[in-house]
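Run log, item B.
One chain of 140 residues. Sequence copied directly from the ordering sheet:
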Amino acid sequence: MSASSRGVPTLPVPLLRDAVGRETARLSLRRAAAELSISPNGLRNFLNGSEPRSATRVKLERWLAGRQHVTRPPNVGQLVRLLNELAGDLSTQQTAALAGDIAGLLAAAYEARRLSPPRWVQELLRHYRVRRGKVASEVA
């Protein structure tokens, strides 16, 4: 059974590794491994680049989901890097269009709930509006 069929979203391994690394930095390696129910060596190996087994990956994703505290809002740089990684096979123009559409969807989701989009969503919209303008002018 895959992680996604168990109700846990499947994150790309580099993103999962980064998120687990940030969370485990606040704990000792042994304590984090105990919370995850994996060996300290297994956790260290994962953080150092090894590919997790499917059962370990499920544990890592569930542990992250259970920690549900947001320490700070995302910043535009992180989101831009993530979008560029996700759209690695697309052209620069396609990536910019995709990212602009995602930013628009985020803003629309907040507005549909009668909420003002957070600052990071507004910054993301600005970033990709400017970028789209540059791409459009380069093509013309």
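Observations after the first pass:
- The radius of gyration is 18 Å.
- Residues 135-140 have pLDDT under 50 and may be disordered.
Flagged for discussion on Thursday.
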